[in-house]
Amino acid sequence: MLTRHASPFADPAGNNPAPARVVAVLVLAVVAAATGTLLEPGPPARVSLAAAVTLLLTSAVLALRLWVARRAAALTTDLLAGFIEKDAAPSFVADEDGAILTRNAAAADRFSDSGDATLAATLRSVFANPQAVLYRLQCRSRIGGNAREDVITRRGHVRLAVHRLGDNGYLWRVEDVPDRSGGPRGAEVFAVPMITVGRSGALLFMNDAARQLIGTREKSLDHVFPDQPVRPGEINRLNTSEGPVDVIVAERDGQAGRRELYFLAVTTQTATPPEAFETLPVPMIKLEPGGKILKVNRLAGDLLGVEITTDTVLSDLMQGLGRPVTDWLRDTALGVAHQKSEFLRLTRPDKEVFVQVSLSRVSEDGGTVLIALLNDATELKSLEAQFVQSQKMQAIGQLAGGIAHDFNNLLTAISGHCDLLLLRHDQGDQNYGDLVQINQNANRAAALVSQLLAFSRKQTLRPEVLDLRDTLSDLTHLLNRLVGEKVTLTLSHDPVLRPIRADKRQLEQVLMNLVVNARDAMPQGGEIRIETEVLTLETPLTRDRATVPPGDYVTVKVSDKGTGISPDKLQKVFEPFYTTKRTGEGTGLGLSTAYGIIKQTGGFIFVDSVPGEGTEFTLFFPAFEPEASDIVVKPVATPSPVPQHGEGVVLLVEDEAPVRAFASRALRLRGYTVLEADSAEDALRLLEDPDLTVDVFVTDVVMPGMDGPSWVRLALKDRPLVRVVFVSGYAEGAFGETGPSVPNSVFLPKPFSLNQLTETVHQQLH
């Protein structure tokens, strides 16, 4: 209700001089008329009567102007009163001296205990020395028509604004500005009890709601919560001036190691205030023991990311407990379950979100309800998933390396003995075709084993300087056959493309895997684009938990317009045996193999995808920088006599009997003298004979007991001129990083053929 005191357009004393002027003119008119009547008829009398008439007309004009001014002032006052009456902020109309002429209902309610007639005295309850602020704003409003200023008070920010009304009136408005900084001043007027705790447990701040609940101003956390430590998300005992109270506590980390604790009383006599529940700065859900959701505050609604209806139950929003969610809720409501946090996955369709849920049982309106306190644990679960994934990759890598080693030994024996049989059969023999089939399938099996080594990043690479234009040109024919008739393959190259250093065979395998995946993503056909580009990074590029250092790179992009990959599956596409295809359509090794090859080459691979719009894989390869030592002028080759096989003694050390038998027969067929040993220790015993002459050591790398490089280094101390051929089912780098390189040595990966073994030994001897 609007309270009026006087017209805002009166003079400072409260009087209006206009009626006095009208009366004075009327008095003069009467005097002039009386004088003209008393005088003898003549010019003086006529002058006096004319003056009287003039004065009467002047008084009439003045009276009319007075009536119009009063009417306008009344209309203005009514309009102003109607305006400020509907304003939610306290508003005042005051005169030049600050005397309150009018105040609206908000002002009367806010300052109900103030009976002061001046604005300065009324605002003294809000902040100290209001007279200076009012005078400063009033002076500025005389110049600009309006002014405002924010004043920091104990209860927060107050904005004081003034508008000038005519010559003597001023409209003042007092507005509370919410503090969004999250600091103590913003919490002072917060509806939920809140305290700020320092590192040592000292209470640094208590808002009004906390002081009202506790009843005293405490200085230490253990005085407020006797049972230490405080358990967020659970019911804790709070000491108050009226006795202990059970409260549910929510915690939020502050700045500089401080903690902010919010708590709500959960006794049978105290229900959760609706405004407190809604504005609590932590996600919270109120639900029935059966799981039906009763209320969700704003932060919980944002975290859940789905619309909550009256029939929504908690099990529709979360999963991953390992048992029915309803059982968990029922046990908590009955008090038979220990109150502890559970990590659950939200069923959001847009992204993967994990939450830590703490359940508490409270009494409200004579019944039992559950309060679920949520905490976003996505980052924590992502770190945990990364750790688990790294352990899984390490375990699978070790398993794959071991399997590959054993398979390569078996394949070496199979293909080697097949080569021995082929030496005794010509093409006209009826068994020749069967032997060729065995040999070809052994080679196919060797390619599968190389895939196992690829995603474990343990395959042996043969890097060379490549021009991607030539590599893709040679591969285009095969890729066009892979994609079929419905899919179009388009290549686009940077005109200044730079060379890279990589294994050509492995790079072709990566590109084929990516193109096949793109083809499968477009069952109705479409276009696959392969684009190459030179990119210079001035600053490190960080994405997908990887950092690409600055430098020059050659990028290869393979993109399609297919079905795309959903965000929750995108981060798993490089995991071994993970596939988005249906059962029987994919093994999940393609992308993991590509990832292993790219990482071992020193490059990076990233994926971007939008469901329904397509997927793009981007490969980063360091641009090759040739050094002076790489530029060698080759002399003109002169024909030299080809040395003959069978000129030398070979010490063969191999723990696998089938492989040793094949290698020994192959070398003897070429005329070499072969000494066999099944272990490093056996080989060293043979070499103890000083009269024994050996030209080449052919040894396995990984053997029971002493490994190949170790015994070779010991043997070379007495026989430094002996050449060495290392063979292994593992990668070459599996032993080269553990110690210094062995001089005069080469590496031959398993499985190897008869010709590969004999040619390698021949090259070492000559």
Characterise the protein shown here.
There is one protein chain. By secondary structure, the chain is of the alpha+beta class. The chain contains 22 helices and 31 strands. The strands form seven sheets. A six-stranded antiparallel sheet has the order 1-3-2-6-5-4, sandwiched between helices. Strands 13-12-17-16-15-14 form a six-stranded antiparallel sheet. A five-stranded antiparallel sheet has the order 8-7-11-10-9. Helix 18 links the parallel strand 27 and strand 28 (673-677). The chain is elongated and about 165 Å long. The N and C termini lie far apart (112 Å). Residues 4-15, 180-189, 631-643 and 736-740 have low confidence and may be disordered.
- The spatial strand order of the largest sheet comes to 1-3-2-6-5-4
Q: What portion of residues belong to β-strands?
A: 15-25%
End-to-end distance? 112 Å
Principal-axis shape equals elongated
Largest sheet entry: 6 strands, antiparallel
Q: Whole-number radius of gyration? A: 46 Å
Low-confidence stretches: 4-15, 180-189, 631-643, 736-740
Percent helix range: 25-40%
Structural class: alpha+beta
Number of strands: 31
Mean pLDDT equals 77
Total helical segments:
22
Provide a compact summary of the structure:
It contains 22 helices and 31 strands.
